[in-house]
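assembly run, all chains below
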Amino acid sequence: MGFSATVGGTRHVFADLRQLLACATPFRSGDALAGVAAESAAQRVAAQRALADLPLAHFLTEAVVPYEADEVTRLILDSHDAAAFAPLAHLTVGGFRDWLLGEADSAALTTLAPGLTPEMVAALSKICRLQDLVAIAAKCRVVTRFRNTLGLPGTLSIRLQPNDPVDDPKGIAAQVLDGLLLGAGDAVIGVNPATDNVENLCRVLGLLDAVRDRYAIPTQSCVLAHVTTTLLAMQRGAPVDLVFQSIGGTQAVNESFGVSLSLLAEAHAAALALKRGTLGDNCMYFETGQGSALSADAHHGVDQQTLECRAYAVARRFRPLLVNSVVGFIGPEYLFDGKQITRAGLEDHMCGKLLGLPMGVDVCYTNHAEADQDDMDALLTLLGVAGVTYVMGVPGADDTMLAYQSTSFHDGLYVRAALGKTPAPEFLAWLERMGLADRTPDRLPMAVAGLL
Amino acid sequence: MSAPVLWRDLRRHTAARVGLGRVGNGLPTAAHLDFQEAHAQARDAVWSVLDVPALQAALGAEVVASAAPDRRTYLLRPDLGRRMAEGLSLAPRPGCFAIVVADGLCATGVQAQAPALAQALTSGLRAAGWDVAPPVIATQARVAIGDAIGAALGAAMVAVLIGERPGLSALDSMGIYLTHAPRPGRSDAERNCISNIRPGGLSVAEASAKLLWLVQAARDLGATGVALKDEQPVLPLLEDQPEGR
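ok done. output:
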């Protein structure tokens, strides 16, 4: 089945849903690299018009990646909640946008989430301006719990990211302390390991858990190793709060990451069995990013933003505590500059939220992208207004292990103050008990100085 | 080392930007400008250009360009950086060991360190009985251009010495990628990597020794990549790259 629209007297024809979605996507370098981007501005807006007229129900009848060939497509279609979708079944994509900006409220969006597919929200995002991406996301409420409560209205949480180039315990501990002194760490204290092996993983997990336990910090820790390494660590009795994994939107990209839905289910079950959460049992942490499927040659001719949304279908299957896009990390061949990174970050956040995910964003860039701190300030502020669940906190915005720039602990303080946000309530109470809620003392509190 | 008493004492324990102080919720001016300076240097490093004549004089090397005509295209089209420009050819030297010196994402570290490393490798490999081809300099090049160059030479193995993406605290880092039986289409899982070669990281002598060990192991195994298990304790292999980003 084809689609068409006329712009400026020229009729533009799109062979299938895959091409329609790709051509409707605001320009980004990764779609040009994949050869799926619109060939002109006129073709792009024609695709957007045709997409706006498409009934949402059509997305239940035409898959962008074949059902038979892809377990992510099967997950999306087999788990679709028709009852949740029913109230919107009569709408087009354009009508969906109008409803979201108009009468939709938080309660309706929470009920609706299981009725939405990734491709529906991807289509929606393609006909949204930045302010639409912000305004719609701001209506979504997604609350998750492990040892604290994330996503409550008026809160903005921070992942404390104390990465060290050689996983040196003192280097990690000094960064954890720096972050705690600056109010970060309520989303998770999460280390990207320099070396992904089980001995190292157990060592770093032990360090983080000892710190958390000693100071009774109401948060969770994670070492972002491969899921198979984390499974081994759990078998050895290591203190695993959250299971981490990078995921993508096709079976093939997940294979390139060395994972499948069944492997993720096995890890989820193992983490649930540990029962380490005190307030809730959301115990998975996923990262995604536009361009990962193309990077793995696993994109099936689908645009990178639609594939990113399909990764969220994988994530929501496992009721995660945290999900974030690493939007500026994948590289300039996918998102070239600050403009493309900004739009993609807001798209990822809104689409994840509509699908019911506790969505954070790694507001970040690499040194070969055309971006700088000004771009990060703008995206961080926009995401704060959009109600982002969490962002990263890296000392001085400089990750010395991964060699990229993310948001700093100071940035977290800035955005909370500028928008009147607070940390998760349990963590805020801890900061108050430690005398860290409003200021950073020059002299370290004796209790935390003992970390080093 | 005594326990930290002041916030800024945390800097004793890490190269990360801890203990920076705080003005309101922002960075003090000096810390802010330190960051801007580091980023400026990293940006300039990405756009740095190999001084090919100087490198050629030091290495006695052939020069090939990739199919990416300029830096912007190089950044946008990784596929072009993996191929040689149209019309280039190299004299075949079947069974040789090929050394490629490539700019990658930063030329400055390669410019400074590649001559000494190529020299150390060449003498080490010759001592191990290899026919070592003169190094090939490749501009606007990605790692996989070694597959094209190695195939053109008929090389048994290729080592690509290439500039790594600059970070704020490591501007001048070089990596080496070793590929057995190079030919276009090899995947990254079929290579072994030594990274972080720079002053303050892995030295040229350490890197050379590690590569010579890997070459011998690859020759015994008849393969590089995930099949070639690292039995040297601190050598990073591709399979050990961190997950998550």
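Chain B touches chain A through 53 residues (CB under 8 Å).

The longest strand of chain B covers residues 157-163.

not gonna interpret more than that til we talk
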